Amino acid sequence: MEVVDKLKILKIINSSKKGKSIKQIQKEIGENISQRTIKKILKELELEGKILIKNSKVYSLKKLDLIFGEFEKKKNYGFVNDIFIPPKWSNLAISGDLVIVKPIKKENGKIVGKIIKIVKKKHLFIGTYRNKKVYPDDKSLGISIEITKKSKKLKIEENSKVLFRLIRGKKLKASIVEVIGKIDEPDVDLKVVIKTYNLPINFSKEVESEVDKIPEKINFKNRLDLTDEIIYTIDPIDAKDYDDAISVKKEGDYYILGVHIADVSHYVKFNSVIDIEARKRATSVYLLNFVIPMLPHKLSNYLSSLQPLKNRYAFSVIMKINKKGEIVETTFFKSIINSKARLTYEDAQALLENKEPWTGVSKFADENYIEIIRENLKLAEELSEIIREKRESEGSLDFDLPEPYFIFDENKNIINIIPKIRLKTHRIIEDFMISANVSVANFFSKNNIPAIYRIHDRPDPKKIKNFIIIAQNLLNIPISIPEKITSLEISKILKMVKNSDNEDLLTYLLLRSMARARYSTKNIGHFGLALKNYTHFTSPIRRYPDLMVHRILYSALKNKIDRSDEFLEMLEDIANHCSNMEEKADNAEWDLWEYKKLEFMKNKIGEIFEGVISGFSDEGIFVEIKEHLVEGIVKFENLKIDENRYIAYVNNKMYKLGQKVNVKVAKVIKEFKKLILDFVL
User: Fold this and answer.
1) Using alpha carbons only, how large is the chain's radius of gyration in Å?
2) Is 0.90 surpassed by the pTM of this model?
3) Alpha helices in 186-339 (DSSP H)
4) pLDDT digits (tens, 9 = 90+) for 599-649
5) DSSP string covering 480-511
6) Is 65-120 in CATH node 2.40.50.140?
C-alpha cells in the first residue's frame, strides 16, 4: 500500500512546477492518508533525490532541473556529480553530505552550481588517533581535529584507526565512536574500508529465517531436464558462487551455444524480505579474499550456486550461431542442469593446451569427463574466436589492462603484487556471457518490453581529442581526429596503441576518457561493446539488476508484461540505485587495493625501481612502477605543465608522459593513500 502511496504522491508533485503543501497533497491523493504518513514518505522521496522540501512546500527536482547527489570536497571547493561547486556556494557542506544543487552557469565548459539544501549530513568518518587528536583520512576536514572531553578519557593506543562522529560548529570536533584497530594490523585495512563505505556484513534474523524455510528439494515440473547434457562451469580458483554454466555443440554448419544461469528468482520472490535486502545491497562486494555477498550464503554458495554433480535450477539461453558469429535463433526457458565439472580458469586453459589440470580445485563427474570436456573446450574456443572477431569488426573495445594480483602469507600479510594473467578461457566465458546478455536485450528491444538495460554513453569529444594529441606525441605517428566519435573509430586507435612501448599507459588514458557504464530503463546502447542493445542477465547471485532482468524475461515469456508508468518508474529507481551501489563497491575495492599496495611498498623503502611517468599534477610527477602496478608521486613545487598535460618542466628539465625513469621509494603515507618517490639520477 505504501509503495502505491509513494508513487501517487510523487506523481502529484511532478505534475507541477509550483510547490505543493502537505494539505494539497493530502487532498489530491484522494485517500484516507494521514499527514504524518505523507511527511514520512516525503522524507524518503527527498533522500531518494526526487523532491525538495523547502519552506513548508514540496517541489519536484525534475521540474525545477535541480540535481541531487553526494558532495565531494576538494580543498575549499567541491563537486556534485560533475557540477563544480565554488566555496561561496558550498553552503558549508562536507564530503559525503547528500545535497540538492541548482546549476547556475557554465564556465570553461563546466557547469557551476550552488548547494541550496543539505538533505542529509554525513556524521561518521575514519581517522588515525595520535596525541589526543584525530587525523582524518579525508583531508578536506583538515590535518587534525580536536577530540571531545569524553573521548579524551578513553584508553586508546597511539596510531589506532578510529571511527569518529564529526561535531560541526565554529570549530570541528571529533567524538570517537569505535576503535577499529592498530594501523599496522593485517586486517585493519579491510575493516577501515568496510566502515568507510558502511558495507553491511551480516544479514538480519528475518532474512536468515526466511532463507532457512526455503525447501532444498528439486522439482522438475514445468522445466526442461538438461541433467544429461555436457554442461560445466569455469570460475576463479577461489569462487563459491557459480552463477553461470556453458554448453557447446555443433549441428551441421551451426554452433549451439547454451548459457545456463542460476535461477535465483525461483528462490527470491519480488518484495520478499530476502529480495528487499538484496535490492538494498544491489551487488556483492569483492574485497580481495573477503566477500560481502548480496544474498545469504545458503543461497549464494549453495542452493542457487551451480555446483558440480548437483541438480540445480537454471534459466537457459540457447543460441544458434552461424560461421559468421551471427545469432540466427534464440530460445529462453527454465531448466534443471547437473554440471559435469567445476573448472578453474587455469585448469580449463591447461585442458585447452593438452595438459593436465593442476590446481587441485577443479572437479569432474568422473575421469572420463576430463577428455570429454577437453574436446568440448576446443569447440568453445573455436566459437569464441568467431564471436570475438565479429564483435571486434563492429568496433567492440577491449581495453585489456593488467590487474594486480595480491599474494598473502598465512598471517594475511602481503608478500607480493604481480600483474594478473588474462587467459584464453577468460575470453571464452566473456564472449559467451556477452552473447547471452545481447540475446536477452534484443528480445526486450524487439518486443518493446520495459526493462533494465546496461548502457554506456558516448565519450566527451574534448576528452578524445586531448587523448589523440597525447597519443600522437607518444607514438610519434599522425592520428586523425574523427568527425564523429564511434566505437569503430576508437577501436582503430586502440589497434595503433597495441604493442607500442606505452600500450598500458595509453590504454589506461583512453579508458579514463570513456563514460562510466550504468543501468537504465532508457536504452541508448553500449558504446564500449558497440551494441544497440545490452543488458546484464548472467550474474543474478551477485548483481541485483540481473535478478530483475530474470523476472522481467520470465514474465514476458508468460505474456505477463507490465507496461505501467509505476512499474517503469520503479525500474528506473532500481537502475539508479544499482548504478550508485556498483560505483560504491568499485571504490571500496580500489581503496583496499591502494592500502595493500602501500602496505607492500612500506617494506620497499629505500629500494630502486624502474618506472614510467604516468601523469602530472600541481603536486608533482606521477610514476607507475610496472613490476607491481603501483603508482607514486615525485613531489615538485614549481612544476610547469604543458596545456595538453603530456610534458612538464621543472628546473629547466623536461619530463614527458611515458618516459622511463628510475625511482627510489622514499615514504608511505597510508591513510592518505600516498606513495612518495624520488628520482634516481
Assistant:
1) 27
2) yes
3) 188-196, 205-212, 264-267, 273-281, 297
4) 999 999 999 999 999 999 989 999 999 999 999 999 998 889 987 778 999
5) ---SS--HHHHHHHHHHHTTSTTHHHHHHHHH
6) yes
